[in-house]
Amino acid sequence: MSASFLRRGLELLEAPGHGEASPGGQRGWGGPRAASTARRRKKAQEPGRNKATVKSRVVKSAIEEYHKKKAVNHLRENLQYMLKGRCVANKAITEQVLVQNRGRKSKDQPPKKAAKKKPEGTVFTEEDFRKFEREYFGRP
């Protein structure tokens, strides 16, 4: 609510005779601040524009505000930026930098790669198995 509405409401609710001050309680109208007080009262009673509002205020749309504050996905622009620069460092240099930045703790060390085992193949051929079968079981 604005101050003028409150003042008007209080004036309407005041009991008759309550609004006037007691004769000895206040200074007379002839005091040094009487003119400025009267001017202030007159200005407050005048109907006019509301001083509490901003001069060039524009009503904003709730949808526009939502779109402004909505999170934006920058993935596509970031990917284009990253893929644009195709300057790839030498693999040996990259490995050297990684080794230098590694700590001494075991958690910082890369897992040791086990040597690849060759698939165990048989030394014997199918013909050798048939020959063994004939000799051992006595089958032709």
UniProtKB/TrEMBL annotation:
GO molecular function terms attached to this record: enzyme binding
Domain of life: Eukaryota
Assigned GO CC terms: nucleolus
Protein keywords: Nucleus
Transmembrane domains' residue ranges: none
Principal cellular location given in the protein's record: nucleus
Subcellular location: Nucleus, Nucleolus
Chain positions covered by the region annotation Disordered: 14-56, 100-122
Cross-referenced Pfam families: AROS (PF15684)
Family under the similarity heading: Belongs to the AROS family.
Protein name in the entry: Active regulator of SIRT1
Gene source species: Bucco capensis
Lineage: Eukaryota, Metazoa, Chordata, Craniata, Vertebrata
